[in-house]
Amino acid sequence: HKGISRGLETLEIQYKPSADVSEDLDLSKMRRVYEEKFANVKKREIDRGMTLFGPHRDDLLFFVNGRDVQTFGSQGQQRTTAL
At 50, is the secondary structure helix, strand, or coil? Predict the structure, then answer.
């Protein structure tokens, strides 16, 4: 991105998990958080016929110069971010 913007913009990418997990959780604690969440949404998922939770529902957030590209980015910034 720096090359495309000639060094004028800095791109930051943040991973946003669908579960409320903190960075200080070890693997076993994180597994329990996910198992509890899966159990809590199971009935709603069956009723709706779709998944409501899981890593495939996680999101990536993109920021250019500290601003959310999805909300505040120009069409050009959104396109170069995708590249």
Answer: coil
* Structure confidence by residue, pLDDT tens digits, 53-79: 888 888 999 999 999 999 998 998 899
Residue type, 69: V
For each of the domains in the chain, give its residue range(s) and CATH number, in order of start: 11-82 (1.20.1050.90)
Report the chain's mean pLDDT, rounded to a whole number: 88
**Of the candidate ranges 2-11, 22-31, 50-59, the one whose mean pLDDT is the lowest:** 22-31
What separation in angstroms does the CA of 37 have from each of 8, 12, 41, 52? 42, 29, 6, 10
The token duo for 71 is: 């909300």
CA angle centred on 74, ends 69 and 78, rounded to 5°: 50
Q: Supply the pTM of this predicted model.
A: 0.68
